[in-house]
Amino acid sequence: MGRRKLEDDDDNNNSKEFKSKNLQAERRRRQKLSDRLLTLRSLVPIITNMNKATIIDDAITYIQELQKTSQVLSEQLLEMEGSSEESVMPMKLEIDVAQHDMKKCGIKEEVKVSNIDGNKFLIKIIVEKKRGCFTQLIEAMNYLGFELSETNVTTFSGAMLFSSCVHGKYGDTLMVEHIEELLSEMMRSMKTSSQSAIELGNTN
Amino acid sequence: MKVYEESGCFDPHSLTDCQELMGLPGATPTNCHNSLEDTLNVSSYNHHHHEDASAALDMEPHQHYLLDNTTNNNSHMIPYLTQDLPYDQSHWESFNVVPSSSSPEAAAAAAAAGAYTPTPDLLGLFHLPRCSFLPNPSISFETTPGSPSVVYDPLFHLNLPPQPPVFRELLQSLPHGYTVPADDKDAAGIGGLYHDGDNGIIQFTRDISMAGRAKDRDKAGKTTKHFATERERRVHLNDKYQALRTMVPSPTKNDRASIVGDAIDYIKELLGTVRELQLLVDKKRCGQDRSKRLKTEDAASAADAGDVEFKSLGDPDQCYNTSLRSSWLQRKSKDSEVDVRIVDDEVTIKLVQRKKINCLLFVSRLLDELQLDLLHVAGGNIGDYYSFLFNTKIYEGSSVYACAIANKLIDVVDRQYAAAPPTSSTSL
User: Fold this and answer.
1) Where is this region: Disordered (chain A) (predicted)?
2) How far apart are CA B261 and CA B239, in angstroms?
3) Domain count within chain A
4) Out of A22, A50, B24, B232, which residue is the most buried by the measure of CB atoms under 10 Å away?
5) Tens of pLDDT along A92-146?
6) What span, in angstroms and rounded, lies between the C-alpha atoms of B202 and B195?
7) Which CATH number is B327-419 given?
8) Secondary element (H or E) of residue A112
9) CATH 3.90.226.10 for domain B224-288
Protein backbone atom coordinates (compact mmCIF):
# COMPACT_ATOMS: atom_id res chain seq x y z
CA MET A 1 0.00 0.00 0.00
CA GLY A 2 1.29 3.38 -0.88
CA ARG A 3 0.18 4.76 2.42
CA ARG A 4 2.30 2.35 4.36
CA LYS A 5 5.28 3.26 2.24
CA LEU A 6 4.81 6.92 2.96
CA GLU A 7 4.65 6.36 6.66
CA ASP A 8 7.70 4.15 6.65
CA ASP A 9 9.63 6.72 4.70
CA ASP A 10 8.67 9.42 7.14
CA ASP A 11 9.73 7.30 10.04
CA ASN A 12 13.01 6.48 8.46
CA ASN A 13 13.83 9.94 7.30
CA ASN A 14 12.68 12.05 10.18
CA SER A 15 13.57 10.56 13.50
CA LYS A 16 15.80 7.58 13.93
CA GLU A 17 15.58 7.80 17.69
CA PHE A 18 11.82 7.56 17.90
CA LYS A 19 11.60 5.03 15.13
CA SER A 20 11.48 1.92 17.29
CA LYS A 21 8.79 3.10 19.70
CA ASN A 22 6.50 4.41 17.03
CA LEU A 23 7.10 1.59 14.61
CA GLN A 24 6.04 -1.05 17.07
CA ALA A 25 2.94 0.86 18.09
CA GLU A 26 2.07 1.40 14.47
CA ARG A 27 2.64 -2.25 13.69
CA ARG A 28 0.40 -3.29 16.56
CA ARG A 29 -2.27 -0.91 15.37
CA ARG A 30 -2.14 -2.28 11.89
CA GLN A 31 -2.14 -5.82 13.17
CA LYS A 32 -5.23 -5.10 15.22
CA LEU A 33 -7.00 -3.65 12.24
CA SER A 34 -6.10 -6.53 9.95
CA ASP A 35 -7.17 -9.09 12.56
CA ARG A 36 -10.52 -7.43 12.82
CA LEU A 37 -10.87 -7.26 9.09
CA LEU A 38 -10.16 -10.98 8.93
CA THR A 39 -12.93 -11.61 11.44
CA LEU A 40 -15.29 -9.46 9.43
CA ARG A 41 -14.35 -11.36 6.33
CA SER A 42 -15.12 -14.64 8.06
CA LEU A 43 -18.58 -13.48 9.06
CA VAL A 44 -19.70 -12.19 5.71
CA PRO A 45 -20.58 -14.60 2.94
CA ILE A 46 -18.98 -12.44 0.30
CA ILE A 47 -18.83 -13.13 -3.34
CA THR A 48 -16.24 -10.70 -4.70
CA ASN A 49 -12.55 -10.08 -4.36
CA MET A 50 -10.78 -10.24 -1.07
CA ASN A 51 -9.11 -6.91 -0.68
CA LYS A 52 -9.58 -4.31 1.99
CA ALA A 53 -12.01 -2.14 0.10
CA THR A 54 -14.28 -4.91 -1.07
CA ILE A 55 -14.53 -6.52 2.33
CA ILE A 56 -15.92 -3.28 3.70
CA ASP A 57 -18.34 -2.95 0.81
CA ASP A 58 -19.49 -6.51 1.14
CA ALA A 59 -19.98 -6.04 4.86
CA ILE A 60 -22.19 -3.05 4.18
CA THR A 61 -24.23 -5.01 1.67
CA TYR A 62 -24.57 -7.91 4.04
CA ILE A 63 -25.70 -5.72 6.91
CA GLN A 64 -28.32 -4.11 4.70
CA GLU A 65 -29.51 -7.50 3.63
CA LEU A 66 -29.80 -8.73 7.20
CA GLN A 67 -31.66 -5.61 8.22
CA LYS A 68 -34.11 -6.11 5.40
CA THR A 69 -34.64 -9.75 6.32
CA SER A 70 -35.28 -8.91 9.96
CA GLN A 71 -37.72 -6.21 8.95
CA VAL A 72 -39.63 -8.58 6.69
CA LEU A 73 -39.78 -11.20 9.41
CA SER A 74 -40.97 -8.77 12.04
CA GLU A 75 -43.70 -7.50 9.76
CA GLN A 76 -44.74 -11.04 9.14
CA LEU A 77 -44.84 -11.62 12.86
CA LEU A 78 -46.96 -8.55 13.39
CA GLU A 79 -49.41 -9.73 10.78
CA MET A 80 -49.67 -13.11 12.36
CA GLU A 81 -50.15 -11.62 15.77
CA GLY A 82 -53.00 -9.49 14.51
CA SER A 83 -54.83 -12.49 13.17
CA SER A 84 -54.44 -14.76 16.19
CA GLU A 85 -56.89 -14.79 19.09
CA GLU A 86 -54.78 -16.38 21.78
CA SER A 87 -53.91 -13.40 23.91
CA VAL A 88 -57.38 -12.58 25.19
CA MET A 89 -57.81 -15.58 27.44
CA PRO A 90 -54.90 -15.49 29.88
CA MET A 91 -55.71 -12.29 31.71
CA LYS A 92 -58.80 -13.48 33.46
CA LEU A 93 -57.27 -16.81 34.31
CA GLU A 94 -54.25 -15.16 35.87
CA ILE A 95 -56.22 -12.97 38.15
CA ASP A 96 -58.35 -15.78 39.46
CA VAL A 97 -55.30 -17.88 40.05
CA ALA A 98 -53.56 -15.04 41.88
CA GLN A 99 -56.35 -14.47 44.34
CA HIS A 100 -56.62 -18.10 45.00
CA ASP A 101 -52.91 -18.48 45.71
CA MET A 102 -52.67 -15.57 48.06
CA LYS A 103 -55.50 -16.71 50.21
CA LYS A 104 -54.07 -20.19 50.28
CA CYS A 105 -50.74 -18.98 51.68
CA GLY A 106 -52.34 -16.64 54.11
CA ILE A 107 -50.71 -13.53 52.78
CA LYS A 108 -52.51 -10.40 53.64
CA GLU A 109 -52.36 -7.11 51.95
CA GLU A 110 -50.33 -4.67 53.91
CA VAL A 111 -48.92 -1.22 53.97
CA LYS A 112 -46.12 -0.41 56.36
CA VAL A 113 -44.13 2.78 56.58
CA SER A 114 -41.27 3.48 58.93
CA ASN A 115 -39.26 6.60 59.32
CA ILE A 116 -35.53 6.56 58.88
CA ASP A 117 -33.89 9.79 59.65
CA GLY A 118 -35.86 12.87 58.81
CA ASN A 119 -37.38 12.82 55.40
CA LYS A 120 -36.45 9.26 54.58
CA PHE A 121 -38.88 6.42 54.87
CA LEU A 122 -38.91 2.72 54.34
CA ILE A 123 -42.08 1.63 52.68
CA LYS A 124 -43.22 -1.93 52.48
CA ILE A 125 -46.34 -2.87 50.60
CA ILE A 126 -47.86 -6.25 49.97
CA VAL A 127 -50.48 -6.20 47.33
CA GLU A 128 -52.27 -8.64 45.16
CA LYS A 129 -50.42 -9.02 41.94
CA LYS A 130 -52.24 -7.78 38.92
CA ARG A 131 -51.32 -6.61 35.51
CA GLY A 132 -50.06 -3.06 35.71
CA CYS A 133 -50.08 -2.80 39.48
CA PHE A 134 -46.43 -1.93 39.61
CA THR A 135 -47.04 1.01 37.37
CA GLN A 136 -49.81 2.17 39.62
CA LEU A 137 -47.58 1.89 42.65
CA ILE A 138 -44.87 3.96 41.07
CA GLU A 139 -47.41 6.52 40.03
CA ALA A 140 -48.59 6.70 43.59
CA MET A 141 -45.07 7.27 44.79
CA ASN A 142 -44.61 10.03 42.28
CA TYR A 143 -47.83 11.61 43.32
CA LEU A 144 -46.74 11.70 46.92
CA GLY A 145 -43.53 13.36 45.89
CA PHE A 146 -41.30 10.50 46.83
CA GLU A 147 -38.03 9.82 45.20
CA LEU A 148 -37.13 6.15 45.27
CA SER A 149 -33.53 5.64 46.17
CA GLU A 150 -33.60 1.88 46.54
CA THR A 151 -36.38 -0.30 45.24
CA ASN A 152 -37.07 -3.96 45.45
CA VAL A 153 -40.01 -5.83 44.13
CA THR A 154 -40.64 -9.53 44.30
CA THR A 155 -43.63 -11.58 43.42
CA PHE A 156 -44.65 -14.87 44.92
CA SER A 157 -47.82 -16.81 45.20
CA GLY A 158 -49.84 -14.22 43.42
CA ALA A 159 -48.72 -11.43 45.71
CA MET A 160 -46.31 -8.66 45.10
CA LEU A 161 -43.98 -7.32 47.73
CA PHE A 162 -42.84 -3.81 47.17
CA SER A 163 -40.11 -2.55 49.42
CA SER A 164 -38.49 0.75 48.88
CA CYS A 165 -36.38 3.31 50.60
CA VAL A 166 -37.73 6.69 49.65
CA HIS A 167 -37.19 10.24 50.55
CA GLY A 168 -39.55 13.07 50.12
CA LYS A 169 -38.71 15.47 47.37
CA TYR A 170 -40.91 18.23 48.60
CA GLY A 171 -39.92 20.14 51.66
CA ASP A 172 -42.65 19.35 54.15
CA THR A 173 -42.18 16.21 56.14
CA LEU A 174 -45.05 13.82 56.29
CA MET A 175 -45.95 11.76 59.30
CA VAL A 176 -45.70 8.06 59.09
CA GLU A 177 -49.35 7.42 59.84
CA HIS A 178 -50.33 9.96 57.27
CA ILE A 179 -48.34 8.21 54.59
CA GLU A 180 -49.74 4.85 55.55
CA GLU A 181 -53.21 6.20 55.29
CA LEU A 182 -52.65 7.75 51.93
CA LEU A 183 -51.08 4.64 50.55
CA SER A 184 -53.84 2.36 51.81
CA GLU A 185 -56.39 4.61 50.26
CA MET A 186 -54.56 4.55 46.96
CA MET A 187 -54.37 0.84 47.01
CA ARG A 188 -58.03 0.53 47.65
CA SER A 189 -58.80 2.81 44.75
CA MET A 190 -56.46 0.78 42.60
CA LYS A 191 -58.27 -2.35 43.53
CA THR A 192 -61.69 -1.01 42.79
CA SER A 193 -60.65 0.50 39.48
CA SER A 194 -59.09 -2.76 38.33
CA GLN A 195 -62.07 -4.71 39.53
CA SER A 196 -64.41 -2.57 37.49
CA ALA A 197 -62.16 -3.12 34.52
CA ILE A 198 -62.45 -6.85 34.99
CA GLU A 199 -66.21 -6.56 35.23
CA LEU A 200 -66.27 -4.64 32.02
CA GLY A 201 -64.21 -7.36 30.46
CA ASN A 202 -66.61 -9.98 31.78
CA THR A 203 -69.62 -8.32 30.32
CA ASN A 204 -67.87 -8.06 26.98
CA MET B 1 -27.03 31.70 -14.34
CA LYS B 2 -25.04 34.07 -12.25
CA VAL B 3 -22.89 31.31 -10.95
CA TYR B 4 -22.06 30.18 -14.37
CA GLU B 5 -21.04 33.57 -15.54
CA GLU B 6 -18.93 34.60 -12.66
CA SER B 7 -17.07 31.42 -12.23
CA GLY B 8 -15.43 31.77 -15.54
CA CYS B 9 -16.00 28.16 -16.33
CA PHE B 10 -15.07 26.93 -19.64
CA ASP B 11 -17.54 27.40 -22.35
CA PRO B 12 -19.44 24.33 -23.33
CA HIS B 13 -20.05 25.80 -26.66
CA SER B 14 -16.43 26.22 -27.36
CA LEU B 15 -15.88 22.66 -26.33
CA THR B 16 -17.82 21.50 -29.30
CA ASP B 17 -15.36 23.30 -31.47
CA CYS B 18 -12.64 21.64 -29.57
CA GLN B 19 -14.19 18.41 -30.59
CA GLU B 20 -13.86 19.39 -34.19
CA LEU B 21 -10.31 20.41 -33.60
CA MET B 22 -9.47 17.22 -31.89
CA GLY B 23 -10.94 15.41 -34.81
CA LEU B 24 -7.83 16.26 -36.74
CA PRO B 25 -5.13 14.13 -35.28
CA GLY B 26 -2.46 15.83 -37.21
CA ALA B 27 -3.43 19.30 -36.12
CA THR B 28 -0.55 21.45 -35.06
CA PRO B 29 -0.81 23.45 -31.92
CA THR B 30 -0.84 26.77 -33.69
CA ASN B 31 -3.71 25.69 -35.83
CA CYS B 32 -5.60 24.71 -32.81
CA HIS B 33 -4.84 28.02 -31.23
CA ASN B 34 -6.10 30.02 -34.13
CA SER B 35 -9.26 28.07 -34.53
CA LEU B 36 -9.81 28.34 -30.85
CA GLU B 37 -9.49 32.07 -30.84
CA ASP B 38 -11.75 32.27 -33.80
CA THR B 39 -14.29 30.23 -32.01
CA LEU B 40 -14.10 32.31 -28.93
CA ASN B 41 -14.29 35.51 -30.84
CA VAL B 42 -17.58 34.57 -32.28
CA SER B 43 -19.99 36.90 -30.67
CA SER B 44 -23.13 35.67 -32.27
CA TYR B 45 -23.30 31.97 -32.50
CA ASN B 46 -25.40 29.96 -34.76
CA HIS B 47 -28.43 28.74 -32.99
CA HIS B 48 -28.70 25.81 -35.28
CA HIS B 49 -25.14 24.88 -34.58
CA HIS B 50 -25.80 25.30 -30.93
CA GLU B 51 -28.65 22.90 -31.13
CA ASP B 52 -26.54 20.35 -32.85
CA ALA B 53 -23.95 20.78 -30.23
CA SER B 54 -26.38 20.28 -27.45
CA ALA B 55 -27.80 17.26 -29.17
CA ALA B 56 -24.34 15.89 -29.61
CA LEU B 57 -23.50 16.62 -26.05
CA ASP B 58 -26.70 14.99 -24.97
CA MET B 59 -26.95 17.46 -22.17
CA GLU B 60 -29.72 17.81 -19.73
CA PRO B 61 -32.40 20.36 -20.54
CA HIS B 62 -31.41 22.90 -17.98
CA GLN B 63 -28.03 23.14 -19.50
CA HIS B 64 -29.55 24.86 -22.46
CA TYR B 65 -29.83 27.90 -20.29
CA LEU B 66 -26.13 27.86 -19.78
CA LEU B 67 -25.44 27.52 -23.44
CA ASP B 68 -27.44 30.62 -24.06
CA ASN B 69 -24.92 32.58 -22.13
CA THR B 70 -22.03 31.75 -24.34
CA THR B 71 -21.87 35.20 -25.83
CA ASN B 72 -21.21 36.71 -22.48
CA ASN B 73 -18.70 34.09 -21.65
CA ASN B 74 -16.77 34.39 -24.83
CA SER B 75 -15.59 37.81 -23.94
CA HIS B 76 -15.01 36.54 -20.47
CA MET B 77 -12.83 33.73 -21.61
CA ILE B 78 -10.55 35.55 -23.95
CA PRO B 79 -8.41 37.51 -21.52
CA TYR B 80 -8.30 34.37 -19.44
CA LEU B 81 -6.87 32.40 -22.29
CA THR B 82 -4.50 34.86 -23.76
CA GLN B 83 -2.45 34.72 -20.63
CA ASP B 84 -1.62 31.13 -21.24
CA LEU B 85 -0.74 31.22 -24.85
CA PRO B 86 2.92 30.44 -24.50
CA TYR B 87 2.76 26.88 -23.39
CA ASP B 88 4.99 23.94 -22.91
CA GLN B 89 4.74 20.41 -21.82
CA SER B 90 4.56 21.41 -18.20
CA HIS B 91 1.15 22.85 -18.83
CA TRP B 92 -0.12 19.51 -19.74
CA GLU B 93 1.13 18.03 -16.54
CA SER B 94 -0.43 20.84 -14.66
CA PHE B 95 -3.69 19.90 -16.22
CA ASN B 96 -4.39 17.09 -13.88
CA VAL B 97 -7.48 15.25 -14.64
CA VAL B 98 -8.77 12.63 -12.35
CA PRO B 99 -11.93 10.58 -12.56
CA SER B 100 -14.65 11.34 -10.13
CA SER B 101 -16.01 8.57 -8.11
CA SER B 102 -18.31 7.31 -10.79
CA SER B 103 -16.39 6.76 -13.96
CA PRO B 104 -14.12 3.87 -14.65
CA GLU B 105 -13.32 4.80 -18.19
CA ALA B 106 -12.14 8.19 -17.15
CA ALA B 107 -9.13 6.53 -15.71
CA ALA B 108 -8.28 5.45 -19.18
CA ALA B 109 -8.84 9.00 -20.30
CA ALA B 110 -6.56 10.42 -17.68
CA ALA B 111 -3.93 7.89 -18.39
CA ALA B 112 -3.99 8.39 -22.09
CA ALA B 113 -4.15 12.11 -21.69
CA GLY B 114 -0.55 12.40 -20.87
CA ALA B 115 0.49 10.53 -23.95
CA TYR B 116 -1.15 12.72 -26.54
CA THR B 117 0.87 15.86 -26.77
CA PRO B 118 -0.54 18.34 -29.26
CA THR B 119 -4.10 18.51 -28.10
CA PRO B 120 -3.69 18.54 -24.37
CA ASP B 121 -2.50 22.05 -24.41
CA LEU B 122 -5.84 23.17 -25.70
CA LEU B 123 -7.56 21.60 -22.84
CA GLY B 124 -5.02 23.13 -20.56
CA LEU B 125 -5.83 26.48 -22.04
CA PHE B 126 -9.42 25.90 -21.31
CA HIS B 127 -8.45 25.46 -17.73
CA LEU B 128 -10.96 22.82 -17.16
CA PRO B 129 -10.97 22.92 -13.40
CA ARG B 130 -14.71 22.62 -13.38
CA CYS B 131 -14.65 19.48 -15.37
CA SER B 132 -15.36 16.19 -13.92
CA PHE B 133 -16.12 12.93 -15.48
CA LEU B 134 -19.35 11.22 -16.09
CA PRO B 135 -20.04 7.63 -16.76
CA ASN B 136 -22.18 8.68 -19.70
CA PRO B 137 -20.06 8.05 -22.72
CA SER B 138 -22.27 10.00 -25.04
CA ILE B 139 -20.80 13.18 -23.69
CA SER B 140 -17.22 12.20 -24.12
CA PHE B 141 -15.30 13.51 -27.04
CA GLU B 142 -13.31 10.67 -28.37
CA THR B 143 -11.46 10.70 -31.61
CA THR B 144 -8.53 8.35 -31.88
CA PRO B 145 -8.03 5.65 -29.33
CA GLY B 146 -5.08 7.40 -27.86
CA SER B 147 -6.61 10.81 -27.65
CA PRO B 148 -7.70 12.27 -24.41
CA SER B 149 -11.33 11.85 -23.67
CA VAL B 150 -12.76 14.71 -21.81
CA VAL B 151 -16.15 14.28 -20.42
CA TYR B 152 -18.10 17.28 -19.46
CA ASP B 153 -20.25 17.28 -16.41
CA PRO B 154 -23.05 19.69 -17.05
CA LEU B 155 -23.99 19.94 -13.43
CA PHE B 156 -20.69 21.07 -12.18
CA HIS B 157 -21.05 24.66 -13.13
CA LEU B 158 -23.87 25.01 -10.73
CA ASN B 159 -21.52 24.43 -7.83
CA LEU B 160 -23.96 22.10 -6.25
CA PRO B 161 -23.35 21.24 -2.62
CA PRO B 162 -21.50 17.97 -2.44
CA GLN B 163 -23.70 14.97 -2.10
CA PRO B 164 -22.78 12.54 0.63
CA PRO B 165 -21.12 9.58 -0.93
CA VAL B 166 -23.90 7.21 -1.82
CA PHE B 167 -23.06 3.62 -1.49
CA ARG B 168 -23.63 2.90 -5.16
CA GLU B 169 -21.14 5.53 -6.09
CA LEU B 170 -18.65 3.93 -3.83
CA LEU B 171 -19.32 0.55 -5.35
CA GLN B 172 -18.57 1.90 -8.76
CA SER B 173 -15.35 3.35 -7.58
CA LEU B 174 -13.95 -0.02 -6.65
CA PRO B 175 -10.52 -0.60 -8.00
CA HIS B 176 -11.56 -3.57 -10.01
CA GLY B 177 -13.76 -1.29 -12.04
CA TYR B 178 -10.85 0.60 -13.48
CA THR B 179 -9.54 -0.40 -16.82
CA VAL B 180 -5.92 -0.78 -17.67
CA PRO B 181 -4.85 2.26 -19.64
CA ALA B 182 -2.62 2.21 -22.64
CA ASP B 183 0.25 4.04 -21.12
CA ASP B 184 1.02 3.45 -17.52
CA LYS B 185 3.81 5.67 -16.50
CA ASP B 186 2.16 8.98 -16.98
CA ALA B 187 -1.13 7.83 -15.62
CA ALA B 188 0.36 7.15 -12.26
CA GLY B 189 2.21 10.36 -12.42
CA ILE B 190 -0.72 12.61 -12.90
CA GLY B 191 -1.63 14.17 -9.65
CA GLY B 192 -4.94 15.12 -8.32
CA LEU B 193 -7.58 17.20 -9.81
CA TYR B 194 -10.28 16.05 -7.61
CA HIS B 195 -13.37 16.92 -5.86
CA ASP B 196 -12.75 18.53 -2.56
CA GLY B 197 -15.35 17.06 -0.34
CA ASP B 198 -16.02 20.21 1.62
CA ASN B 199 -17.20 22.81 -0.77
CA GLY B 200 -17.78 21.13 -4.09
CA ILE B 201 -15.16 23.13 -5.91
CA ILE B 202 -12.36 21.21 -7.39
CA GLN B 203 -8.93 22.16 -6.32
CA PHE B 204 -6.82 22.60 -9.31
CA THR B 205 -3.36 21.11 -9.45
CA ARG B 206 -3.27 20.48 -5.78
CA ASP B 207 0.00 18.71 -5.29
CA ILE B 208 2.21 18.85 -8.28
CA SER B 209 5.23 17.98 -6.23
CA MET B 210 3.25 15.17 -4.70
CA ALA B 211 2.36 14.00 -8.15
CA GLY B 212 5.97 13.99 -9.11
CA ARG B 213 6.95 11.99 -6.09
CA ALA B 214 4.05 9.64 -6.52
CA LYS B 215 5.04 9.04 -10.08
CA ASP B 216 8.47 7.81 -9.13
CA ARG B 217 7.25 5.65 -6.33
CA ASP B 218 4.35 4.23 -8.20
CA LYS B 219 6.49 3.28 -11.07
CA ALA B 220 8.32 0.94 -8.79
CA GLY B 221 5.49 -0.13 -6.52
CA LYS B 222 2.36 -0.52 -8.58
CA THR B 223 1.90 -3.29 -11.01
CA THR B 224 -0.80 -3.54 -13.59
CA LYS B 225 -3.71 -1.93 -11.74
CA HIS B 226 -3.71 1.83 -11.62
CA PHE B 227 -5.65 4.21 -9.55
CA ALA B 228 -5.71 7.70 -10.74
CA THR B 229 -4.30 8.79 -7.45
CA GLU B 230 -3.47 7.23 -4.16
CA ARG B 231 -5.11 10.06 -2.27
CA GLU B 232 -8.36 9.54 -4.07
CA ARG B 233 -8.29 5.87 -3.18
CA ARG B 234 -7.74 6.69 0.45
CA VAL B 235 -10.58 9.18 0.45
CA HIS B 236 -12.87 6.57 -1.02
CA LEU B 237 -11.77 4.02 1.51
CA ASN B 238 -12.44 6.45 4.34
CA ASP B 239 -15.86 7.17 2.94
CA LYS B 240 -16.63 3.49 2.95
CA TYR B 241 -15.58 3.21 6.56
CA GLN B 242 -17.85 6.08 7.44
CA ALA B 243 -20.71 4.50 5.56
CA LEU B 244 -20.17 1.31 7.55
CA ARG B 245 -20.17 3.32 10.73
CA THR B 246 -23.54 4.90 10.00
CA MET B 247 -25.19 1.51 9.72
CA VAL B 248 -24.24 0.39 13.20
CA PRO B 249 -26.77 1.35 15.88
CA SER B 250 -24.41 2.51 18.58
CA PRO B 251 -21.04 3.43 17.18
CA THR B 252 -18.22 4.09 19.59
CA LYS B 253 -14.87 5.48 18.56
CA ASN B 254 -14.22 6.81 15.14
CA ASP B 255 -11.10 4.93 14.17
CA ARG B 256 -10.97 2.13 11.64
CA ALA B 257 -10.34 -0.72 14.04
CA SER B 258 -13.29 0.10 16.26
CA ILE B 259 -15.55 0.70 13.27
CA VAL B 260 -14.77 -2.79 12.05
CA GLY B 261 -15.19 -4.13 15.59
CA ASP B 262 -18.60 -2.51 15.93
CA ALA B 263 -19.58 -3.89 12.55
CA ILE B 264 -18.60 -7.38 13.62
CA ASP B 265 -20.71 -7.11 16.77
CA TYR B 266 -23.62 -5.72 14.85
CA ILE B 267 -23.52 -8.47 12.26
CA LYS B 268 -23.53 -11.07 15.02
CA GLU B 269 -26.46 -9.29 16.63
CA LEU B 270 -28.38 -9.13 13.37
CA LEU B 271 -27.80 -12.82 12.75
CA GLY B 272 -29.17 -13.53 16.20
CA THR B 273 -32.19 -11.32 15.66
CA VAL B 274 -32.99 -12.95 12.34
CA ARG B 275 -32.73 -16.38 13.91
CA GLU B 276 -34.95 -15.34 16.81
CA LEU B 277 -37.57 -13.85 14.51
CA GLN B 278 -37.56 -16.94 12.35
CA LEU B 279 -38.11 -19.07 15.43
CA LEU B 280 -41.00 -16.91 16.58
CA VAL B 281 -42.63 -16.99 13.16
CA ASP B 282 -42.33 -20.75 13.04
CA LYS B 283 -43.75 -21.15 16.52
CA LYS B 284 -46.59 -18.86 15.73
CA ARG B 285 -47.36 -20.65 12.54
CA CYS B 286 -47.28 -23.95 14.40
CA GLY B 287 -49.67 -22.61 16.97
CA GLN B 288 -52.03 -21.29 14.33
CA ASP B 289 -51.98 -24.53 12.41
CA ARG B 290 -52.66 -26.49 15.54
CA SER B 291 -55.60 -24.35 16.56
CA LYS B 292 -56.99 -24.50 13.05
CA ARG B 293 -56.67 -28.23 13.02
CA LEU B 294 -58.33 -28.56 16.38
CA LYS B 295 -61.22 -26.44 15.25
CA THR B 296 -61.81 -28.45 12.11
CA GLU B 297 -61.49 -31.69 14.01
CA ASP B 298 -63.97 -30.55 16.63
CA ALA B 299 -66.39 -29.46 14.00
CA ALA B 300 -65.98 -32.61 11.96
CA SER B 301 -66.35 -35.41 14.46
CA ALA B 302 -67.32 -34.69 18.02
CA ALA B 303 -68.68 -38.16 18.50
CA ASP B 304 -65.55 -40.14 17.94
CA ALA B 305 -63.29 -38.75 20.66
CA GLY B 306 -60.75 -41.50 20.51
CA ASP B 307 -60.25 -41.06 16.85
CA VAL B 308 -59.58 -37.38 17.18
CA GLU B 309 -56.87 -37.95 19.69
CA PHE B 310 -55.28 -40.56 17.57
CA LYS B 311 -55.33 -38.29 14.61
CA SER B 312 -53.69 -35.42 16.39
CA LEU B 313 -50.87 -37.58 17.63
CA GLY B 314 -49.99 -39.03 14.31
CA ASP B 315 -50.48 -35.88 12.39
CA PRO B 316 -47.51 -35.15 10.15
CA ASP B 317 -48.09 -31.40 10.29
CA GLN B 318 -47.51 -31.22 13.98
CA CYS B 319 -44.32 -29.39 14.63
CA TYR B 320 -42.56 -30.00 17.85
CA ASN B 321 -40.64 -26.83 18.03
CA THR B 322 -38.75 -27.53 21.18
CA SER B 323 -35.84 -25.21 20.58
CA LEU B 324 -35.46 -22.51 23.17
CA ARG B 325 -35.22 -19.01 22.01
CA SER B 326 -32.23 -17.18 23.39
CA SER B 327 -30.99 -13.77 22.49
CA TRP B 328 -28.89 -11.07 23.96
CA LEU B 329 -28.67 -7.45 22.94
CA GLN B 330 -27.09 -4.30 24.21
CA ARG B 331 -27.81 -0.76 23.34
CA LYS B 332 -25.79 2.19 24.52
CA SER B 333 -26.47 5.83 24.22
CA LYS B 334 -24.82 8.85 25.70
CA ASP B 335 -26.49 8.68 29.08
CA SER B 336 -28.08 5.27 29.21
CA GLU B 337 -27.28 1.67 28.70
CA VAL B 338 -29.71 -1.17 28.11
CA ASP B 339 -29.04 -4.89 28.22
CA VAL B 340 -31.76 -7.32 27.21
CA ARG B 341 -31.52 -11.08 27.55
CA ILE B 342 -34.23 -13.46 26.57
CA VAL B 343 -34.33 -17.15 27.33
CA ASP B 344 -37.47 -18.81 26.08
CA ASP B 345 -40.11 -16.57 27.64
CA GLU B 346 -38.18 -14.90 30.41
CA VAL B 347 -36.72 -11.52 29.77
CA THR B 348 -34.04 -9.95 31.90
CA ILE B 349 -33.47 -6.27 31.43
CA LYS B 350 -30.68 -4.22 32.89
CA LEU B 351 -30.84 -0.49 32.73
CA VAL B 352 -28.26 2.03 33.74
CA GLN B 353 -28.97 5.69 33.40
CA ARG B 354 -27.31 8.81 34.59
CA LYS B 355 -29.22 10.17 37.48
CA LYS B 356 -31.64 12.82 36.48
CA ILE B 357 -35.14 11.45 36.28
CA ASN B 358 -36.59 8.45 37.94
CA CYS B 359 -37.13 6.28 34.94
CA LEU B 360 -38.96 3.51 36.80
CA LEU B 361 -42.33 4.87 35.87
CA PHE B 362 -41.65 5.06 32.16
CA VAL B 363 -39.97 1.71 32.04
CA SER B 364 -42.80 0.08 33.89
CA ARG B 365 -45.34 1.61 31.52
CA LEU B 366 -43.37 0.35 28.57
CA LEU B 367 -43.18 -3.12 30.04
CA ASP B 368 -46.94 -3.18 30.40
CA GLU B 369 -47.26 -2.12 26.80
CA LEU B 370 -44.92 -4.84 25.64
CA GLN B 371 -46.96 -7.43 27.55
CA LEU B 372 -44.20 -8.31 29.95
CA ASP B 373 -45.15 -9.53 33.37
CA LEU B 374 -42.93 -8.07 36.04
CA LEU B 375 -41.63 -10.69 38.39
CA HIS B 376 -38.80 -8.93 40.11
CA VAL B 377 -37.29 -5.50 40.18
CA ALA B 378 -34.19 -4.41 42.00
CA GLY B 379 -32.21 -1.27 41.78
CA GLY B 380 -31.68 2.23 42.83
CA ASN B 381 -29.23 4.99 43.06
CA ILE B 382 -25.58 4.21 42.77
CA GLY B 383 -23.41 7.28 42.84
CA ASP B 384 -24.22 9.27 39.77
CA TYR B 385 -26.36 6.67 38.14
CA TYR B 386 -29.57 4.78 38.47
CA SER B 387 -29.21 1.11 37.91
CA PHE B 388 -32.10 -1.34 37.65
CA LEU B 389 -32.63 -4.97 36.96
CA PHE B 390 -35.99 -6.23 35.75
CA ASN B 391 -36.95 -9.87 35.60
CA THR B 392 -40.00 -10.33 33.52
CA LYS B 393 -41.96 -12.99 31.84
CA ILE B 394 -43.59 -12.75 28.48
CA TYR B 395 -47.32 -13.16 28.58
CA GLU B 396 -48.59 -16.12 26.69
CA GLY B 397 -49.31 -15.35 23.10
CA SER B 398 -47.17 -12.30 22.77
CA SER B 399 -44.20 -12.48 20.50
CA VAL B 400 -41.92 -9.66 21.35
CA TYR B 401 -38.36 -10.02 20.35
CA ALA B 402 -35.18 -8.80 21.94
CA CYS B 403 -34.27 -6.17 19.45
CA ALA B 404 -37.64 -4.49 19.69
CA ILE B 405 -37.52 -4.41 23.46
CA ALA B 406 -34.05 -2.98 23.59
CA ASN B 407 -34.69 -0.35 20.97
CA LYS B 408 -37.96 0.81 22.45
CA LEU B 409 -36.52 0.89 25.91
CA ILE B 410 -33.51 2.95 25.07
CA ASP B 411 -35.69 5.19 22.99
CA VAL B 412 -38.18 5.87 25.76
CA VAL B 413 -35.52 6.34 28.35
CA ASP B 414 -33.51 8.71 26.22
CA ARG B 415 -36.51 10.72 25.26
CA GLN B 416 -37.61 11.13 28.83
CA TYR B 417 -34.13 12.01 29.84
CA ALA B 418 -33.90 14.65 27.17
CA ALA B 419 -37.36 16.00 27.91
CA ALA B 420 -36.77 16.44 31.60
CA PRO B 421 -35.52 19.90 32.48
CA PRO B 422 -31.97 20.00 33.69
CA THR B 423 -32.10 20.01 37.44
CA SER B 424 -29.45 20.91 39.89
CA SER B 425 -28.55 17.94 42.00
CA THR B 426 -30.57 17.89 45.18
CA SER B 427 -29.60 14.42 46.24
CA LEU B 428 -29.61 13.59 49.88
Assistant:
1) 1-27
2) 17
3) 2
4) B232
5) 555 555 556 666 677 777 888 888 777 788 888 888 877 788 888 888 888 877 8
6) 5
7) 3.30.70.260
8) strand A110-116
9) no
